[in-house]
Amino acid sequence: MDWMKEFGEIFTIKLFNSNMIIISSPAAIKDLLDIRGALTGGRPKSHMQRAAQGLHFVLEDLENPIWKRGRKAITRFLTTDNLNVYMATQKVEYVQMLNDILTQPDEIYNHIRRTSASVMTSIVYGKKCLTFKNSSAEEYFEGIKLFNETNDPGAYPPIELLPWLRYVPRWLAPWTEHIERTTRVRNRLYYGLLAEFEEKKKAGNAEACYISYVLESREKLGMSYDEVVFLGGVLMDAGGETASSYIQSFVLAMLNFPDAQRKAQEEIDAMIGDSRFPSFEDYKNLPYLRALVDEIHRYRPILPIGLPRIATQDLLYKDYILPKGSMLVLNAWGLFHDPELFDAPDVFRPERFLESKYGTKPGVNIESFRNNFAFGAGRRICPGEEMGRRTIAMNTMNMLWAFTFTPKEGGISNMDMNSYSVVCTLRLVFFSRACLTSSSKPGLEMAPKPFSCNIVPRVKARAELIRAEFEAIAACGSE
Ligand code: HEM
Prior knowledge:
The chain is of the alpha+beta class. The chain contains 19 helices and 10 strands. The protein has one domain (2-478): CATH 1.10.630.10. Strands 1-2-6-3 form a 4-stranded mixed β-sheet. The chain is globular. The termini are far apart. Protoporphyrin IX containing FE binds next to α4, α11 and α16. It comes from Paecilomyces lecythidis. Keywords: Heme, Iron, Metal-binding, Monooxygenase, Oxidoreductase. Its cofactor is heme.
């Protein structure tokens, strides 16, 4: 934030012989990343990521056929019709999560992880994760952790900037072993999930799921088998941890801001009552809850610097030259915490989103604003925004309808930077000195570290409804 104040809406950080350009104003984002998105849609070539991630289309440039095919196939996954179909699967998972929290409240952190991973494995591969431990959900989060560590520039030397490092002997290159381990864990999961589906299909007992459609349309989509494997991987990577991080952040916000929790609960109680679960249709009629959700996106954005881009041509913005090949960073964190745009940006106050469309303070020019900076920009904007929003809507309604969250004596429930895993570059670039000395772990996402809290069911009838619904689902599953 201090750097932004000093250097303005756009500034450059020199890293060896390359430029990292930080873009922090709505006008610059609109011009450079939205309108000129065809020239700013490349991705940086990270040796560590590429080696650890295989044919992941998110790492490819716009011109690359792997990106084109992957993006097309993913768009097919995320049509509104499909999202409506997936909602049935999601609801089953959300009932299990409520029941899990009811029965083992101390395990909430992993219940949230299980749920978000299981939604993705169910929809993509037709495979549910009934538990967190010893399931694909646990394996998935292990892979994410290892992968995030490959993004930690403090831990390993910048191989793309010093290419000769690729040739140093193995015993001098501890990152080689890390990459191999990451690849091993992730390949075992993603090749394994696909192989398991194919075996079930052969045996005639596969569930209907997205990967079945992709395999059937593989020729038409022009995808290799490995691309299909990593398409599943992209969906898991992009849809699993984001949902989990948001819901965990939401619980932390409830622990830290009890007034906001109470107001949202009152609104939900007036609308929904005790005899039914919240439904997706309720969400549009809950203005305070929607403001609360927006405030969490603003206060603790899941991807505070999005996913970095590359300028594929020299560009001019005002009197600022962005040389071809520069890394471009959409600084959502800086934008959301800019005191020129948001009144007291470090204060958590959902009401700001009831007072103005984007939560901005009076007099701010909102011409270049939109309500989805948290989902990126231009041609690479998150294709899963609607799915992410639905997930968040359902979980926030459900959890506040069912439970009250309060801090536990001696428990961990802070919402400061030490409570999150954040990538080191981000800490170095944006956060205060205090954060530099924090014990944060690497990761592109602001993922909360494990926390603990008291969770109390709010109404007996609601708890009974959860149990009954969960038993009915479990009975169906065992038939
Ligand atoms: C709250 C949830 C989510 C948030 C905040 C979020 C945010 C983002 C952001 C900031 C980007 C980078 C965009 C850019 O480069 O400008 C991104 C990319 C992406 N997201 Fe999401 N996302 C969420 C959920 C999802 C879901 C549920 C899916 C799919 C199931 C998904 C799929 C993707 C994919 C495939 C990309 C890469 C796009 C590309 O490189 O072309 N996301 N997301």
